[in-house]
Amino acid sequence: MPSLFTLAFKLLVNDRAKFAALIVGLTFSVFLMVQMLSMFSGILLRASSTVLNTGASIWVMDPAVTTVANSIPMPDYVLDAVRSINGVKFAVPFYSGGALVKLADGTYQSVNVIGLDDASLFGRLPLVAGHIEDIYSDNAFIVVRDAEYNKLERPTVGTVFEINDHRSVVVGLAKAPISGLFGIPTLYTIFTRAIVYIPNPRFTLSYVLVEPKSVDRIPQIQAEVAHLGYRALTAKQFVRHITHFYVYQTGLGTNILIMTAISFLVGLSISGQTFYTFILENLERFGALKAIGAKARDLVHVILFQAFLTSLTGYGLGVGLCALLIALAKVRLPDYSSIITYTNLIFAFVMVLIIAGISSYVGIRKVIQLEPFDIFRG
Asked: What is the structure's pLDDT at 2?
């Protein structure tokens, strides 16, 4: 069997042009599939950045909320009602809203303002400059230094600007593990300042962040919040809820699915046609192997070996090329959102195996039906 695989390898690489065509086709197909899926994963991750960065165990919200960015204000009594639920360790208010910042050169920049609980500052990010206690100073804001930081002209501690015609002072710079999705810088301040600086409707409470006394109490808390007419989701459930919205209620999921299917068909068509041509041109050799005693099972092993060798080579090159281009893009474009995940790699690997299986099936049928007499008679 090892000598048979050696022969299969030599037959495969003997025609360098077709071998190169197989590798290039599969590499391009894998590259497109991984790239599309990586873009989708990056978008979904950034769409949930506020949830992941805050670190709250449970989020209480209006039932109509679809994403964390589109909050629906709730009345203040919801906070008191949640705090009174048995099993709640603590519950704090959380504000999220949009505002306009007037920069030093007179231009305006949209920002997302996060208002943290005045007493605990629960959900704050680690600072890379400044002191957290300065957030209680007059007009104090903390700027998140992420991929969108440059859009605020790279402010430092002490920088003064205007938010909705209110004087604001940068007292710190924070580091966010995950940047936001829509290319908008983020500012942090205390809850009471946020609702004063930003025009609001009658209600101002965007979310209630809850920490349960134990994980076992979460179903009870969710049931009692639902009894109030609101929804309580754990962080993982909220992330899944946001993902479901972008996948099924926007065109994003459909477009990515179509592009991934096109990438799969491109790889299948190129590899299938090239591999079938390769089998046709080597029929005489396969016929000679049958004539000298090779069984049909041995020839099937030869074809499968050739198909999977080219597929795995194309898979490795495609993933490597995708990772290289994503790394280069992030150097030049800090807000580039693509991210390669294990799920993406496994999905692409399964697709490559399907391509290899279909491509080898076409060749296997031709070789099994081959009679050595027909080859030698020709």
From this structure: 60
